[in-house]
Each structure stands twice: as structure tokens, then as C-alpha cells.
């Protein structure tokens, strides 16, 4: 089977390895291109923790700042793994989404210990800063990267659909899914989806995916890479 991976290139390395272990060939069709800001200034005075809602935020921070001792509060396990890979020594995972991260931070820290910095991109899901401010925290949101949406499907992606080579497309975010749906419609490839399964990280991701006539839409039991891959294992 061949699977189309729609994640940004930077986020797909471990996923590709997992798919190859399962004997699944990978077609790369990133729906977002990540661009780091090179001119951002980061003030860490009085900061008790860094809030990361994606691995891209960690990589962008690591490229600009050498500090690794501040607590890294991560939205999920994959983001936490990236934090450890980049050298952070105190890493926590909320194993969920933005709302879960807010609840986790509130349960395991105190507002009086210092302000939080949310390292974010140009577009952020949910309102992490707002939720924490409502709980008494001081939160600064700094944009360290931009996720730019693709404007067309790659030729490899088009060929894979036209030749009926794909068995699955994997989706990890609502924005990625919505971008993909728009580009498929623009390319007139809707009918090519009828023989392909769409595997989605969550119900929120599956919502825009449902605009296309898939063979089947499968939603992971929980919003983790492991859970999504488990749906592939089940067939």
C-alpha cells in the first residue's frame, strides 16, 4: 500500500519510518511549509515555563536561543520527544490538545512562579493564552515561525491519485486537511478519493476531510501518532 503524508516535511521523518516498518510506501505531499523567523527577540526574564503546541515551535526556539533549562510544557508526546531531542531537560506532555495542555499546566504549576511564554506560529489552534490568563497566569505569545499553506498539489501527489496508487491519506491538523481538500477540488481530483481511505488524528481534523468522497474516513481513538498508526494496523 502507498500512503500520502500531508504533514510538513520537518514533522514527517518519524512518521515515514513507522510507515516503512509496516511495509507502506510513502508519498510526500506537505500541505504546509514551515518558515522560521530569524529576527525574533526572546525575553526570558521572570519566565517559569515555555508552552509548545507543536514541534515546529520547539525547533524555531532552539534555532534562536540556547536556553534549555526552563520547563517545556508540551501539547503532546511527539512534541515532548522533539523537546528532549533538542536538549530540554524538564519536559512535560499533556498528551492531548490545546485545552488539555491548559488544564495540565494549571494542575501542575502556579501563576505566582512566573510568566509563561507560548512559542507559536502565525496560526494557532484554540486559545491557550486566554485559558491560562483566565486562571491567573501571565502569558506572552511570541511568533517564531510561519506555516505557509501550499498553493497546489505536488506532481507526485497528482500522479499517485490519477494512477490509483494510493490506499491512504494521513491528516494531522484541521488546517492541513482544509488545505488539502481545497487543492484537490481545484485539481478536479475528487472522484480519485473514492478508492482511498482518509486517516485523521481527531474528529476536528475529520470535519473538513468529510467534504471529499472517500472510501472510508477513520478517526484515531486519541490524538496521537501511535493511535493514528494503530488505525492503519487494523486495516
List key phrases describing it.
235 residues; alpha/beta; Rossmann fold; five-stranded parallel sheet; 9 helices; 12 strands; elongated
Q: Can you characterise this structure?
A:
By secondary structure, the chain is of the alpha/beta class. The protein has nine helices and twelve strands. The strands form three sheets. It has a five-stranded parallel sheet with strand order 2-1-10-11-12, with helices on both faces. A five-stranded parallel sheet has the order 6-5-4-7-8, with helices on both faces.
In short:
The chain is α/β, with parallel strands linked by helices and 235 residues long. 36% of the residues lie in helices and 24% in strands. It is elongated and about 60 Å long.
Mean pLDDT: 94
Please state the CA-atom Rg, rounded to the nearest Å: 19 Å
- CA-CA gap between termini: 11 Å
The residue ranges in which pLDDT falls below 50 over 5 or more consecutive positions are none
The total beta strand count reads 12
CATH class categorisation of the largest domain: Alpha Beta
Order of helices and strands: EHEEEHEHEHEHEEHEHEHEH
Helix percentage range: 25-40%
CATH fold-level label of the largest domain: Rossmann fold
CATH architecture of the largest domain: 3-Layer(aba) Sandwich
Amino acid at each position: 500500500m502507498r500512503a500520502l503524508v500531508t504533514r510538513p516535511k520537518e514533522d514527517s521523518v518519524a512518521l515515514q519510518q513507522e510507515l516503512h516498518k509496516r511495509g507502506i510506501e510513502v508519498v510526500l505531499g506537505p500541505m504546509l511549509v514551515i518558515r522560521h523567523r530569524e529576527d525574533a527577540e526572546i525575553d526570558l526574564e521572570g519566565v517559569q515555563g515555555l508552552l509548545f503546541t507543536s514541534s515546529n515551535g520547539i525547533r524555531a526556539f532552539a534555532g534562536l536561543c540556547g536556553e534549555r533549562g526552563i520547563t517545556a510544557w508540551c501539547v503532546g508526546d511527539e512534541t515532548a520527544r522533539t523537546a528532549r531531542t533538542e536538549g530540554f531537560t524538564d519536559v512535560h506532555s499533556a498528551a492531548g490538545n490545546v485545552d488539555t495542555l491548559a488544564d495540565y499546566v494549571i494542575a501542575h504549576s502556579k501563576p505566582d512562579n512566573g510568566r509563561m511564554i507560548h512559542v507559536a506560529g502565525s496560526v494557532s489552534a484554540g486559545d491557550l493564552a486566554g485559558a491560562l490568563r483566565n486562571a491567573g497566569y501571565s502569558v506572552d505569545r511570541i511568533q517564531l515561525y510561519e506555516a505557509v499553506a501550499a498553493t497546489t498539489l505536488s506532481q507526485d501527489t497528482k500522479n499517485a491519485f490519477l494512477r490509483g496508487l494510493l490506499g491512504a491519506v494521513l491528516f494531522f491538523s484541521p488546517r492541513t486537511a482544509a488545505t488539502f481538500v481545497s487543492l484537490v477540488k481545484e485539481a478536479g481530483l475528487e472522484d480519485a478519493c473514492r478508492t482511498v481511505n482518509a486517516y485523521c488524528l481527531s474528529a476536528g481534523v475529520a470535519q473538513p476531510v468529510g467534504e471529499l468522497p472517500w472510501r472510508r474516513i477513520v478517526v484515531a481513538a486519541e490524538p496521537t501518532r501511535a493511535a493514528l498508526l494503530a488505525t492503519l494496523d487494523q486495516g
